[in-house]
Design a protein that fits this description.
There is one protein chain. With 68 residues, the chain is mostly helical. It has one domain: 434 Repressor (Amino-terminal Domain), CATH 1.10.260. Helices cover 57% and strands 9% of the residues. The protein has helices spanning 6-13, 17-24, 28-35, 44-54, 58-61; strands at residues 2-4, 62-64. The chain has a two-stranded antiparallel sheet. Helix 2 packs across helix 3. The radius of gyration is 11 Å and the shape is globular. 10% of the residues are buried.
């Protein structure tokens, strides 16, 4: 399972969903899908833009949790 910690990083950076979505060029609805972990895939370009705007690494946002 992949855990998405995007909301945590956004809170630490004090940035709203609306602001981040605008900065990276996606809709708030698509950002919400990413934040909730419901996305089936994420484009590298989107991940790159998120990391650039939040000054973080992909591993700060995504975490692999093995099945038990």
């Amino acid at each position: 399972m992949i855990e998405v910690n995007l909301d945590i990083i956004m809170a630490l950076r004090r940035i709203t969903s609306a602001e981040l979505a605008e900065r990276i060029g996606i809709t708030q609805a698509n950002l919400s899908v990413l934040k909730t972990g419901k996305a089936k895939a994420v484009r590298f370009s989107t991940l790159e833009n998120i990391c650039r705007e939040l000054d973080c690494q992909p591993g700060d946002i995504l975490k692999y949790i093995p099945d038990e």
